[in-house]
Specification:
Radius of gyration: 40 Å
CATH topology: Uracil-DNA Glycosylase, subunit E
CATH class: Alpha Beta
Largest sheet: 6 strands, mixed
Shape: rod-shaped
Number of domains: 1
Number of strands: 6
Strand order of the largest sheet: 1-3-2-4-6-5
Helix content: 40-55%
Structural class: alpha/beta
CATH architecture: 3-Layer(aba) Sandwich
Distance between the termini: 140 Å
Strand content: 5-15%
């Protein structure tokens, strides 16, 4: 059969298959489609264009104590220290307090009293020790002829707290809050430069002495920040436990003798 006859025979066979419904042509050998798929090149991951959004970066954690230390060291006077403390944003107590409570009394006084933190009355007034405990403190100081209202620095006292903002429900400050505000307190003592420190209650003892247990510590002179220091009961404790006023009176007499010595 010549080539012409072969063409027409093949065509006739193809037309006959189409009429029978054949739609796909197959080869004379089977094809492994899985092998073909494996041989295909893998699609490349899309590349972010240069002007696309930058990768997200986790915010760097701030060392609150280091930041407090930096701000405190930059304060050259008490007004500057108060401004630095008010600008300190890492103590959550600031967000819930009404007032910033810095100090009261005479800054040049020989005696500096350190309390715990503002209470409700102090938060409203913006001054430390103005509630019932503050009134009792004033009477205690008057009994040994000193006080925050005296114009004479030799008979005046200067008062502050470990924390300048009121804790919710007057709770005790926690260790983290004390630690982050300690650099400010240490700078406060350095700038006020008192002759004697009086620590009222456990919180200032924990902050400056590193220990608590005011019932054991009270009345015993120690040294802190290069100054003689007398731990005493907090006036609020004396209001709850009047029987302890006897020990408080003995501590006041010890303070009076130290001032005269």
């Amino acid at each position: 059969m010549d080539s012409g006859e072969t063409y027409w025979a093949d065509r006739a066979a193809l037309e006959w298959q189409v009429e029978l419904g054949v739609s796909d042509a197959v080869q004379d050998k089977p094809v492994d489609r899985y092998a073909l798929d494996a041989a295909k090149p893998k699609p490349k991951a899309p590349v972010t264009p240069p002007d696309g959004p930058p990768p997200s970066v986790a915010p760097e954690e701030v060392d609150a104590v280091a930041e407090a230390r930096r701000l405190a060291a930059g304060a050259i006077d008490l007004a500057g220290l108060a401004t630095a403390m008010q600008g300190f944003e890492h103590c959550e107590l600031k967000r819930g307090a009404r007032s910033f409570v810095f100090s009261d009394g005479q800054a040049a006084a020989r005696v500096m009293i350190v309390g715990e933190a503002p209470g409700r009355d102090e938060d409203r007034a913006g001054k430390p020790f103005v509630g019932r405990a503050g009134q009792l403190l004033d009477r205690m100081l008057e009994a040994i002829d000193v006080g925050r209202a005296h114009g004479d620095a030799t008979r005046a006292v200067y008062i502050t707290n470990v924390l300048p903002w009121r804790p919710p429900s007057n709770r005790t400050p926690d260790k983290a809050e004390i630690a982050m505000m300690l650099p400010f307190l240490e700078r406060h003592v350095a700038l006020a430069a008192p002759d004697i420190l009086v620590l009222m209650g456990n919180t200032p003892c924990q902050a400056l002495l590193g220990r608590t247990g005011i019932t054991r510590m009270r009345g015993e002179w120690v040294e802190v920040l290069g100054k003689p220091c007398l731990p005493m009961f907090h006036p609020a404790y004396l209001l709850r436990n009047p029987i302890a006023k006897r020990e408080a009176w003995a501590d006041l007499l010890a303070l009076k003798a130290r001032l005269r010595g």
